[in-house]
Specification:
alpha/beta; Ribosomal Protein L25, Chain P; seven-stranded mixed sheet; 27 strands; RNA-binding
Length: about 575
RNA sequence: AACCCGGUGGUGUAAUUGGCAACACAACUGGUUUUGGUCCAGUCAUUCGAGGUUCGAGUCCUCGCCGGGUUGCCA
């Protein structure tokens, strides 16, 4: 055709966020030899959650976009909190999200030797000293937000003495917490981070990688920027709360002879309505049994989200959509759901399942007869093909799809009225059978044999279409319906976030599935027509007791109409 | 209270750097449809406030107001 003939005036204008603008400028100025090199630096002290996904997408995404690379670096400077199992889980999560660090897997602990050398050079230049103040004393000397601090009495120790003491700290000659190595900056700085910050503390604790090789450990501020410089990071992206640390980050770099000059840029972390991302609180939910574990499908952890059936692509799409800025914002959970549906609508095959079954007996349908109907797997993707759906005299339909009496707007089965069974026939409800308690146990219907193939022989219109499953062929399975973990959009409001827990966040039902679902593969996500997207839980599949998790419901226009009416 | 950062619809993010406030989600209308799904069309903010500079201000200046961060040997 006439490609390239016309300029694409409608081409989407490229919207760059502020970090991309900074990178563009750095590139234009010829900084960092034109390289873009980022890193994702998790501390292995817990599982990753949706908030981390944003940081991962930004760091790996930017490297990808600019033809650079992104390192995975574990920020393991505090052995009292870190464990190997987290190192492994974090790698699994990042990989699942679709990112790759090639051979660039690093650990801050891998730089401990080098960091000691750098610290030593700082001491030699009179820019660091060993301090004997206790934690409490140091706090008193630090001053406050409004008052300047006072110099430590050990601040002017001779270089030789500092060197000797620092060596002996490493050799384990002193008690835990009895001494620290501190940078010698400015006790009167309005920025508290610059008031002679601690670089090393004495902690006798086995480290998950270095074992008992060390009894001093670097602080975050001391280790982070230097690790960045060692790796040749050009843009060190972190969250807003480190903004006040940037002057310190720069001070270390300015006072050392490092080959590279990374630049710290801060952005707002991701907050979502109806959930929390505090590691401490997530742990409490697990430990107190409010959820079934770190990978409970209601958890905002990547493990939980993955188990729930949300595709990695949806998370990447979401992170792309929410943008990057410095404003502390909270994104509506509905936006996250939208991304999930956006991906699943294209990729998930359709099936039929009845979650709250009521039996329909088609009295004029021959007993023992079974028809094999063809059903489309994905109306938006012909290549997904079709499958066979058995139809017979008795079928299950959704209890909610029947009313004895109903308003005109109710396009489903009503006593004396007609509805179409999807891919099958039009049926009319003739009789409602109830038990002693008044509960409906069966609907007696008749079908129109001429109504197959979507048409009626006399051309009459039947507006409603409902899903169904042949009773004799149905597979019974547990289906778990999830809702927001927290009923309130802002669980942090008030003094007890647990009070906002949604008591109905998990509901288990016994459902009837069409036979094709028996062969769903573990982890597969399908759409139960008219209901939502459901994931065949890989854990339960392995246990031989399959269950489907509701990943997210379909947009429910009728639900809204009905709610408004009542 | 000191210092740092921020403030654009219900929610987020943009605005050629001083030139008609755009995109997405949500909500609401209507259309298509063998999923009340998808899809399509439409409606929904004069940018925290007050001054100032300018032909022209979301963008620049001044003064306020509001929100977040910081007083770990956590990250």
């Amino acid at each position: 055709m006439n490609d390239a003939a016309e300029p694409r005036a409608d081409e989407a204008p490229e919207r760059k966020h502020f970090i991309e603008k900074i990178i563009d400028e750095d590139l234009a100025q010829g900084r960092n030899e034109g390289r873009v090199h980022t890193r994702f630096p998790p501390e292995p002290n817990g599982f990753l959650h949706i908030g981390h996904a944003k940081a991962i997408c930004i760091n790996f995404g930017l490297a990808e976009k600019y033809g650079g690379s992104c390192n995975l670096r574990f920020d393991d400077t505090n052995p009292t909190k870190e464990e190997t199992r987290f190192v492994e889980a974090i790698q699994e999560d990042v990989r699942w999200l679709g990112f790759d660090w090639d051979d660039r897997l690093y650990y801050a602990s891998g730089y401990f030797e080098r960091l000691v050398e750098l610290a030593t050079s700082l001491i030699e230049r009179g820019k660091a000293f060993v301090c004997d103040l206790s934690g409490e004393e140091m706090r008193a000397y630090r001053g406050s937000l409004t008052e300047p601090g006072r110099d430590s009495p050990f601040r002017d120790r001779p270089v030789e003495e500092n060197l000797d003491l620092f060596r002996r700290m490493q050799a384990g000659e002193f008690e835990d917490g009895s001494r620290t190595l501190r940078a010698r900056i400015d006790m009167s700085s309005p920025n508290l981070n610059l008031r002679d910050p601690v670089m090393y503390r004495i902690i006798r604790q086995e480290h998950h990688r270095t074992g008992d090789r060390w009894c001093i450990y670097p602080t975050y501020d001391w280790a982070h920027g230097q690790s960045d410089a060692i790796e040749g990071i050009t843009h060190s992206l972190c969250s807003l709360e480190f903004e006040n640390h940037r002057p310190l980050y720069d001070w270390y770099l300015d006072n050392l002879d490092l080959p590279a000059r990374p630049r710290q840029i801060e952005f707002a972390r991701l907050e979502l309505t109806h959930t929390i991302t505090s590691k401490r609180k997530l742990r409490q939910l697990v430990e107190e049994g409010h959820v079934e574990g770190w990978d409970d499908p209601r958890m905002p952890t990547l493990g939980g989200i993955r188990r729930r059936g949300v595709p990695a692509e949806a998370i990447r799409h979401f992170c792309e959509e929410i943008g990057v800025a410095k404003y502390n914002s909270t994104i509506d959970w509905a936006k996250f759901d939208f991304s999930t549906r956006e991906v699943l609508n294209r990729t998930a095959e359709r099936r039929m399942a009845v979650l709250d079954p009521v039996k329909v007996v088609i009295t004029n349908y021959p007993e023992g007869q079974v028809e094999e109907l063809e059903a489309i797997n994905n109306p938006g993707d012909e290549s997904a093909g079709t499958r066979i759906l058995p139809f017979s005299r008795e079928v299950w339909i959704e209890r909610d799809d029947f009313r004895e009496e109903a308003p005109r707007k109710f396009f489903r089965l009503v006593t004396g009225r007609e509805v179409r069974l999807r891919y099958a026939y039009v049926i009319r409800c003739d009789e409602v059978i109830k038990d002693a308690a008044g509960e409906i146990v069966e609907l007696r219907c008749t079908y129109d044999p001429e109504s197959g193939g979507g048409k009626t022989s006399d051309g009459r219109k039947v507006k409603g279409i409902i899903h169904w499953v042949s009773a004799g062929h149905a597979v019974t399975s547990e289906v778990i319906l999830y809702d927001h973990l927290f009923a309130s959009p802002d669980p942090e409001e008030g003094d007890d976030y647990l009070a906002h827990l949604n008591p109905d966040s998990r509901q288990v039902v016994s459902a009837r599935l069409e036979p094709a679902l028996a062969s769903a593969s573990p982890g597969e996500v399908v759409q139960f027509e008219r209901l939502g997207y459901f994931c065949n839980d890989p854990v339960r599949a392995a246990d031989g007791a399959p269950a489907f998790h509701r990943t997210v419901g379909l947009r429910d226009t009728w639900g809204k109409i009905e709610k408004k009416g009542s």
